[in-house]
Amino acid sequence: MIGPFDARTGESVEGLTLSMPLETQIIEPLMSLSHLIFGAPNFRTALLSMGCWIFAAVLITAIKKSRGRKWFRRYFGSLLISVVAVWLLLLYTLFMMVHHIPGWTLESEDQSSAIVDFQSHTESSPDGIVSILRNLEWHKAVGFDIAAITEHWRINTKLDDLLQDNSSTLPAIIIGVEVDNQYHNYLLGLGLNPQKQIPISRGRDTREFVNIIHNTHQGAVVAMTYDLDKDHVDKLVAAGVDAIEVVNSGHPYVYADTRRKVLDVSQKYGLPLVGSTDWHGWTGFTRVWTLFQHKDLPSVSRKDRGRFVVNELRNKNRDAFTPIISGAVGGDSLTREIFTPFYEWVRYGMELSSQRLLFWWIWSAIFMLLFIKWRGVLAHGIVYGVPITLSAGIAFRAYELSQRAKLTPEGFFIRELPSQLYIAVALTFVGLFFIYMLNRKKSE
Q1: What is the mean pLDDT of residues 86-95?
Q2: Which CATH number fits domain 105-325: 3.20.20.140, 3.40.50.140, 3.40.50.2300, 3.40.50.300?
Q3: Shortest CA distance to 322 belongs to which of 106, 83, 133?
């Protein structure tokens, strides 16, 4: 159920293993909700659906349990409790998004292979929130041997020294850039020379961009499927793109007819299909990798591996690249999106290993004992302790980001995000105060 699968065909891929770090398995019950959300085919619609179901379930339950009270207190109190429940879901999701608790790691048994990410970002992108070092550390933790850093509309000149380092144990680097084109979708330029900046303009002509990447940088161009219309696929191929990104962990949804068209042109023209994390520093999860296989790879030095992979893209060596996914990623049925909590709980249960299930039993036994002996204390601990703990974690991360922002003035999110995180923490304590006052009145 979990894979790994070939993103093109959905078939299992031999010689690859998905594993999860022990520290993540130990806190399995606490991580389960994040597995439900970020393990869904589209985590954005999954979060929306889950929030709606929680709101409705809590509202109905609260109204039923408050029979006999005055109508205003009954309905207003129930509505407030429902809003707080949804807010807790959002607070939990926000905590998981700004902290990098590792999820699945992909490992290959083939010595002539490498796990590649063709798109990621740092705090030098407007919406990136991690440093270059943290970016590479995360890539190593989830199984990547080679990582492309593709800032929005600019080349990160800070990467040059790391590119030349042949002794580092961190993933090898591909220097790249992400731009939009005249079709309002996106292109990746890979294998770039940081000493040669690209004149960037919004809505860039695809053929012009391809010529610059090919002739000035001897690099390769990958077309993204995010927001890509099927009628533009042939135009991108005609403009000379070297490969197409068929799956993206950050933007998982692809139009069904676009996906079919991409698979067709890949087969027809021999274009490689790849996958990318599009990691900006949000969450520690990815569900997308690209397996690169070549018999000459073991003899290539670390600093030259990125260039070697880019050259194979230029050569359109389609068979060397296999986009890999865990679970299902991308487009999904409306029924599954509406009934996300039910579908994803079943999917999550089928993915559980015996070791992860063991930690569920251990934590369940602990909570059962606490419930029997200290029921009131446990209830207050959940109502107040959980949001306070999440808020403390978010506030700590906000402080870290505010310190980083002083060193990276060009990053928009890293400058603006800390204040937004502090607002979320403040709203949480306002909500807790209202809950405390309601409970106090109830006890009177």
Answers
A1: 91
A2: 3.20.20.140
A3: 106
